[in-house]
TrEMBL record:
Name under which the protein is recorded: Helix-turn-helix transcriptional regulator
Pfam families: HTH_18
Superkingdom of source: Bacteria
Lineage: Bacteria, Pseudomonadati, Bacteroidota, Flavobacteriia, Flavobacteriales
Keyword Transcription regulation: yes
HTH araC/xylS-type domain boundaries: 150-249
Keyword Amino-acid biosynthesis included in the entry's annotation: no
InterPro entries xref list: Homeodomain-like_sf, HTH_AraC, Nucleotide_cyclase, Tscrpt_reg_AraC-type_HTH
Signal peptide limits: none
Length: 252
């Protein structure tokens, strides 16, 4: 069985205008139609994620390509819209939830819009002897790349609140020099080591703000930023809105 995770990867959920609402409606309608067409079995969904299983690898690959193709036609064209579509496909093992979690972590970390593990590619090409995966549309992760991304996601998930997490400690965790770490992160994640750490912390800060889990200064301290003002500067640079403004937009 092939498992696919579809993720609208930008957590930023500002007060939505009509255009954003229309996007959401169009996107979900498009995904549901595409899943039905390609015999996808919906296991779990919310406003930003889909967990789907397929009995046929051909159906899974075709579905991923169709969702990818249709996404650009339902996406608002204005510059302030920043949601990105990410998809990852893996082969199910006995622990299906664990396999879905693996795919979700690949979605979270990779820079490529659609990624599959080698086992999915091999299964697809064994079913289609005269066809190959189009690598301009789908990134095939080798086992070492897959393992690295999963471990990276787990490491950041476990250490994001640690103010002592640095590029050096991250490199040490993987046994890599700075240059080696920089090379592999640019290749797989599309970011420098420092930006990987900072962006992950800001993502967690966004979740904490959204959940009203403490004041801005307490959240800045919790994610390991040296000062609330520096945190506010970084948050504004990444999300286009200051933390204080974001809280106003989501006042309860």
């Amino acid at each position: 069985m092939i498992l696919m995770v579809i993720e609208l990867s930008d957590f930023l959920s500002r007060v939505e205008s009509v255009q954003y609402t229309i996007f959401t409606q169009k996107f979900h309608s498009s995904v549901h139609k595409t899943l039905k067409k390609n015999n996808g079995i919906l296991k779990k969904t919310d406003n930003n994620n889909y967990w789907v299983s397929f009995n046929s690898v051909n159906d899974a690959i075709q579905c991923a390509l169709e969702v990818r193709h249709k996404f650009k036609y339902v996406t608002p064209k204005h510059k302030s819209f920043s949601r990105r579509l990410q998809m990852a496909l893996t082969v199910s093992n006995k622990a299906e939830t664990s396999s879905f979690t693996t795919a979700a972590r690949l979605c979270e970390m990779t820079k490529d819009q659609v990624v599959i593990v080698e086992a999915v590619r091999d299964l697809y090409e064994s079913k289609n002897l005269h066809a190959e995966i189009d690598k301009t549309l789908i990134r095939v992760l080798n086992p070492k790349e897959e393992e690295f991304l999963i471990k990276l996601s787990a490491y950041l998930s476990n250490h994001w609140a640690n103010p002592d997490v640095t590029v050096r400690t991250l490199g040490n965790a993987f046994g890599l020099s700075y240059s080696q770490l920089h090379t592999v992160l640019i290749k797989l994640v599309g970011k420098t080591p420092n930006k990987v750490i900072k962006d992950y912390k800001l993502h967690k800060a966004l979740e904490l703000l959204y959940l009203r889990d403490g004041s801005i200064s307490k959240i800045a301290d919790k994610i390991g930023f040296s000062s609330p003002s520096y945190f506010s500067h970084c948050f504004l640079k990444k999300y286009g809105v200051r933390p204080s403004k974001y809280l106003q937009q989501h006042a309860v």
